[in-house]
Write a structure and sequence with these properties.
Elements (H helix, E strand, L loop, with lengths): L10 E6 L5 E6 L5 E7 L3 E4 L7 E6 L5 E5 L9 E5 L6 E2 L8 E6 L5 E6 L6 E6 L6 E4 L5 E6 L5 E6 L6 E7 L3 E6 L6 E6 L5 E6 L5 E6 L5 E3 L7 E11 L4 E8 L6 E4 L9 E5 L4 E5 L2
Antiparallel strand pairs: 1-2, 2-3, 3-4, 5-6, 6-7, 7-8, 9-10, 10-11, 11-12, 13-14, 14-15, 15-16, 17-18, 18-19, 19-20, 21-22, 22-23, 23-24, 24-25
């Protein structure tokens, strides 16, 4: 473990890229949250601000930082920012409202997030393509929250349906618009990750009202990822973790003794062959063909 330092009081790391460059924010003596970038050679350096607080959320492998900022002291509005070596404080704007935040970015510079519309009662997802203005990706109801984007620019997340009665996973492209991915059953699903092949993973309830991880393949339908063994009750992807052939997440099981539960640190689907399961006093490994 390495102490990255501080710009005043406490500091918090929020992202790191494959080169080991880290970003985060620190409490400053003047009461502001100041964003920082840290490298092994230069240590912690402040990245500047557009207003009051500056909060970086991540950094790409090409060194582009994204996050959000607050315009003035006491302000309840916030806006997404982008920081490069050439332009370290770029305000990405909003879709007309007072609130917007970036949630993910790919190395090509594309950024996704959510923004309120005029009046701040409706929130849409946005796509910022690095070459033009912020694009409204829409929603069926009053809310859409993008979670991930792949190298081809396909965006996934979740949003309310028409009438705001349900929340469904979606995918969006500039050419095809928003596509409702449906649910396993019921009225809830959420997409959390997408890989280079366009496969989407997330979570949805099954017919037994158990939360299950799902896999959606382009041209197919949403299918539940099977539990690692017969006692498993829930499977859930652990955030944006899907590769070309594996989904990483966690599961929970109910053991025969009511007082004992096993909680898995991870599961795989068509990928890793070892599943590690921890109990309160032991650790077991399960292997699948």
């Amino acid at each position: 473990m390495q102490d990255l330092g501080t710009l005043g009081n406490d500091s918090y790391g929020t992202g790191v890229n494959t080169s080991g460059t880290a970003v985060g924010f620190s409490d400053h003596a003047d009461g502001r949250l100041r964003g920082f970038i840290w490298t092994a050679s230069a240590g912690m350096q402040e990245i500047g601000t557009l207003g009051w607080h500056t909060v970086p959320l991540g950094i790409s492998d090409t060194g582009v930082v994204f996050g959000y900022w607050y315009p003035t002291v006491g302000s309840s509005s916030y806006r997404p920012l982008r920081c490069t070596a050439a332009d370290c404080m770029q305000d990405l704007g909003t879709l007309g409202g007072n609130y917007a935040v970036a949630s993910a970015m790919k190395n090509a510079g594309r950024i996704i997030g959510s923004s309120s519309l005029p009046g701040d009662r409706v929130t849409h997802g946005f796509f910022w393509p690095a070459s033009t203005a912020m694009v409204d990706i829409g929603t069926g109801g009053d809310y859409a929250g993008p979670r991930a984007i792949n190298d081809s620019g396909v965006v996934v997340g979740s949003g309310s349906t028409t009438g705001n009665q349900q929340t469904h996973a979606f995918q969006w492209t500039q050419s095809g618009g928003m596509q409702d991915l449906g649910t396993l059953v019921g009225n809830y699903s959420e997409a959390t990750a997408i890989n280079v092949s366009g496969q989407v993973t997330g979570q949805s309830y099954d017919a037994s009202n158990q939360l299950k991880a799902f896999l959606y393949t382009p041209g197919g339908i949403m299918v539940a990822i099977p539990a690692p063994f017969s006692l498993a009750r829930r499977t859930r992807p652990g955030g944006p973790a899907i590769s070309r052939n594996a989904v990483l997440g966690h599961f929970a099981t109910t053991c025969p003794a009511p007082s004992r539960k096993r909680k898995g640190t991870g599961f795989d689907h068509d990928g890793f062959s070892t599943i590690r399961v921890r109990t309160h006093d032991s650790e077991s490994r399960f292997r699948r063909p």
